[in-house]
């Protein structure tokens, strides 16, 4: 929600500044310019990227706006509960925990435990899966970043097209100024889309991918400790570093 709020505030500030200078909001509404900038940016990204990366990039944009967070304390408590289940009813009992999770990585980790795989095998499989997921989403994040580079250029293209229309009507000097102003709306759209939406979101997506990878490392360590036969208390003690790290990051953000 904070990301969406930030975008709206940024747009609102621009509109307010335009109004203070004596402009009207309606002057910044131009459907052809929006089509050129938004449609052209999406088309350029689709051309440069494989279909998988492009569709994943669109998903990551919505993910960034949803503000998904990973609770370290909650995850450790969940891992401890898995440990208790495995010690009371055996590793195979963890199959009942799989449907409770909506996260593919977590489900994969539980399935490996339920299959009684060794700790070495569990860690090896999950490390491979973590690298695959992170690599896939970093490629998609770069697609979003590249869109931030295309948008301003397409804004200039829209402005040039608008000026061509203006120059073709030089016989009507009375509408010349208004036509030029309208033409440059496309430039505003391009620069605004890049710097208020796409570039900030691409950086946010990368931070969220890194945060999710750290979350997955926590799960990977936790299930590896369970596979090694550690008690719930021992598992929690070994995972304490993740909790201290998350508290440190929270303090840094507050500072």
Percent of sequence in beta strands: under 5%
Rounded mean pLDDT score = 87
**Structural domains: how many:** 1
Compute the separation of the termini in Å: 21 Å
**Uncertain runs:** 250-255
How would you describe the shape? elongated
Structural class: mainly alpha
**Percent in helix:** over 70%
Number of strands: 0
Question: How would you characterize the overall build of this protein?
Answer:
The protein has ten helices and no strands. The protein has 255 residues and is mainly alpha-helical. The chain has one domain. The protein is elongated, with a radius of gyration of 25 Å. The protein starts with a helix and ends with a helix. Mean pLDDT is 87; it is low at 250-255.
Give a concise summary.
With 255 residues, this protein is an all-alpha fold. It has helices at 2-20, 31-48, 51-66, 72-89, 104-114, 119-167, 176-183, 185-227, 232-238, 240-254.
Q: What attributes characterize this protein structure?
A:
single chain; 255 residues; 10 helices; disordered C terminus
Task: Give a topology summary.
Elements: H1 2-20, H2 31-48, H3 51-66, H4 72-89, H5 104-114, H6 119-167, H7 176-183, H8 185-227, H9 232-238, H10 240-254
